[in-house]
Amino acid sequence: MIWCDIGVNLFSNQFKQDRAAVVERAAQAGIGQLLLIGSDIDESRQNIIFCRQHSGCFSSAGVHPHQAAKVQQDWLLQLSALLNEDEVVAIGECGLDFNRDFSPRPQQQAVFAEQLQLAGRTNKPVYLHERDAFDTQLAMLHEQPPTKGVAHCFTGNTTQLKAWLDLGLYIGITGWLCDERRGTALREAVTYIPPDRLLLETDAPYLLPRNLHPKPASRRNEPAFLPAIAAMVAQLQQTDIALLAEQQWQNCQRLFSTRPDNLLQRSLSHG
Q: Are strands 170-173 and 198-200 parallel, antiparallel or unpaired?
């Protein structure tokens, strides 16, 4: 089985000391490709440089709603240039976050709208973030529907899921599903995800799966733990895990137009 982790925050400070080793462990665990998340222009650039040095790694490029108030005057020109890089396969992480409001809501909406327009002009998939802003984000997406994209780290209920599916979006499932304390609604919703719309992600270093045993002493999530999420999805959807692996791999290639032969490389020391 080969997996694709479509959500890794590899330039989190939690990975500062061992980024290359994290990728190596992912390869050993059967992860074939990683999508690194770009939350602002600088992180997107860091991702691109890393991807050039590590086969099987790709990146999104965009501005997260938390960073919307910090954009430079020419941010859209800078982002447009990044989208020309071969390593960049999606626009984002972009969207709305009304939970923490680190950026004023009007600024979030303006920056999000610009990225939706850019996605339309470039035919890139959008990599969507949404937290406590479902109605507003849904209205914006209806006003300017993306041609393709993924609801990253979906944690909502069945009604919200069906709204994203109606827009043609793929659904990214994380270790939130493995949390019996707060994942109840998601566990019900995941049974409604069609096999050809499901993507898996760790959102590492966050959302360590609670069904992982033994758990790392650091409590840090990483791509090598993606199979624990897959096991929970397979259980809830009552499907064969090998079939799930094949389907999500094909979904990843279809949405992001990545080359299936461009894989994470195991080091020679590990055979």
A: parallel
**Stated pTM of the model:** 0.96
Alpha-carbon dihedral 214, 185, 131, 87, rounded to 10 degrees: 60
DSSP code per residue over 20-39: HHHHHHHHHTTEEEEEE---
Those residues with Cβ within 8 angstroms of residue 224's Cβ, 6 or more apart along the chain or in another chain: 22, 25, 26, 28, 29, 31
**pLDDT digits (tens), the chain, 271 positions:** 999 999 999 999 999 999 999 999 999 999 999 999 999 999 999 999 999 999 999 999 999 999 999 999 999 999 999 999 999 999 999 999 999 999 999 999 999 999 999 999 999 999 999 999 999 999 999 999 999 999 999 999 999 999 999 999 999 999 999 998 889 999 999 999 999 999 999 999 999 999 998 999 889 999 999 999 999 999 999 999 999 999 999 999 999 999 999 999 875 443 3
